[in-house]
Design goal:
Blueprint (H helix, E strand, L loop, with lengths): L5 H10 L10 H15 L2 E8 L2 E8 L8 E7 L18 E2 L5 E2 L7 H16 L8 E6 L10 H4 L3 H6 L1 E5 L18 E10 L3 E2 L8 H25 L10 E9 L5 E2 L2 E10 L5 H13 L1
Parallel strand pairs: 3-6, 3-7
Antiparallel strand pairs: 1-2, 2-6, 4-5, 8-12, 9-11, 10-12
Length: 291
């Protein structure tokens, strides 16, 4: 029987923790990770700026601690799952004979957090000591936008004390053995369109409805999406960071089947490329709404 690498065992233990929304188990994550900090010999601090949403910082002190530090950031939470669509249970962390692990969070982004820990462990075991202090940060709430996690932490005195000079965070998942490093990132631009119109009975031809306006905005957004996808598909040199992605992720409204609603809401997850002017992009959306 082949002995599993301890780093892989740690990763699978982390993946088995159900830190999934809407009720992520952050306490179990922090307990597991604190144990690693103690084993490696790292200082650590747990900060809870919002009740039930702890932030864990591990610190490997450099020999010139006054210098700006390096922050290695990851988040503990994962998005909800549709278990019936999975080959294995999403929190079983099943490993197939070829080494592939199936679990929610394996790419986004528990594996990255464990990589940080194992990199520091390896360097310390080699007797290395770095000039700059390294902080490993595990935050909550990222999948909800990070407002109660990193959003509050960066404004806190504790964060300012870290004296961060450079930070690394997640990029995109990879399908092969190459792990790309990104020096820039697209700007998240989450938007909801609330479309109002005339209500009425479902048996009539109601004019100027919310649905007609929703259809107009969907057509505009998906046309723009297709244009960006064409740019990406036709140029093999383009990476995702060179184009703006658009995906409709939300729709709500309606009272009952025979009533034309006076309001419908649609939402889009947009990642605006650095090559797009964000002010001009927002103006484009506003023009569509005025139309």
């Amino acid at each position: 029987m082949t002995t599993e690498d301890p780093a892989v065992t740690l990763l699978r233990d982390y993946l088995r923790i159900k830190s999934v929304h809407p009720n992520p188990d952050y306490d179990s994550c922090v307990t597991l990770l604190k144990g690693q900090a103690e084993t490696i010999g790292l200082d650590y601090q747990v900060t809870e700026l919002v009740k039930g949403k702890p932030i864990l910082i591990m610190s490997w002190m450099g020999y010139e601690p006054h210098l700006p530090t390096i922050l290695l950031n990851s988040h503990m939470d994962v998005v909800p799952v549709s278990e019936e669509c999975w080959k294995y249970g999403p929190f079983e962390a099943v490993k197939e004979p070829n080494g592939d692990i199936f679990a929610r969070g394996i790419q986004d982004m528990k594996s990255v957090g464990i990589q940080y820990i194992e990199a520091v462990r390896g360097l310390k075991e080699q007797g290395k000591r770095l000039k700059r202090t390294i902080h490993i940060c595990f935050v909550p709430d990222e999948e909800l936008g990070g407002i109660d996690g990193m959003g509050k932490y960066v404004s806190s005195p504790d964060f300012k004390k870290l004296n961060v000079g450079m930070a690394l965070d997640e990029g995109l998942g990879t399908l092969d053995e190459e792990i790309p490093v990104y020096f820039t990132e697209r700007n998240p631009f989450v938007v909801k369109f609330h479309c109002s119109g005339n209500p009425g009975h479902g048996s009539l031809f109601i004019e100027n409805t919310a649905a007609a306006k929703v259809q107009y905005m969907i057509n505009k957004m998906l046309k723009f999406r297709q244009e960006q996808k064409k740019l990406f598909d036709e140029d093999p040199k383009k990476a995702l960071g060179n184009v703006t992605t658009v995906n409709m992720t939300f729709m709500s409204g309606g009272l009952q089947m025979n009533v034309v609603p006076n309001e419908l809401c649609i939402g889009f997850d947009i990642r605006v490329s650095p090559t797009h002017n964000i002010v001009e992009f927002q103006k484009m959306l506003e023009n569509w709404m005025e139309e």
